[in-house]
Amino acid sequence: MPISANQERATLPGSVALLLAPALLLAPVLLFALVTWQVAADGPLVRLDERLSRVLVNPDRFSELLADLGNIPVAVPVLALALGYVAVRGRRAGADRWWLPVAAAALLMALVPALIVPLKALVARPGTPAEPPGTGYYPSGHTATATIAYGCATLLLFPWLRTAMARRALIILCAALVLGASYGLVRRGYHWPLDVVGSWCLCAVLLTSLWLFLRRATAPDRPRCPALGPDPHGSP
User: Fold this and answer.
1) What is the distance of C-alpha 81 from the center of its chain?
2) How far is residue 57's CA from residue 128's CA, in Å, rounded to a whole number?
3) CB neighbours of 217 closer than 8 A, spacing ≥ 6?
4) What is the pLDDT of residues 97-145, one digit of tens each?
5) With 178 labelled, which of 64, 78, 105, 219 sits at a CA distance of 20 to 30 A?
6) Considering only CA atoms, which of 141, 149, 94, 102 is closest in space to residue 118?
């Protein structure tokens, strides 16, 4: 059966994105490796990072509220509400394996401390002058919590939104929450800027992997073309 022009246009963005998937994964992996190496080796990027931090740090109530967007009691309940909504919608719609996106996102959220905590111990980066003496600030756990929680919620809610305006609003809201939390952590002095960048890179890999998995796991089966056989009416 021929594909309509509207259907073809709808499949093009997804197809292009899949072709770009290796780059979407490779770029943050390389950047994460570079930043981690510089932080661990106390390289030139660390000097720039410290200078930038001195310019940005200015603890106040607003920056503290923004940083709280990365707290587990704030970010994880938002994800839980999104997971519950998607699970109910999927089950009511009779979707095949409606539970799979919910389970995958919940598992990814649970993996965040399992990835971040060993990296903190391995790199053992000291905190900013605004923090008490200690190590374990790279990468930022609060940034990772915010990025994965709000990012997973966006990926799961996106297919259920009917209008382009609603989808754009969801993406903008997700970006605002993640960037707000990240800025608050740096402005308040809880983290160096590179702590945040490192978490962004790590989470970009995780969210891209989740997106690719969900596209493959929930994609509908392609209809099979019927085999060509003799015309039952006997026409040539």
Assistant:
1) 17
2) 9
3) 97, 100, 101, 104
4) 899 999 999 999 999 999 999 999 999 999 999 999 999 999 999 999 9
5) 219
6) 141
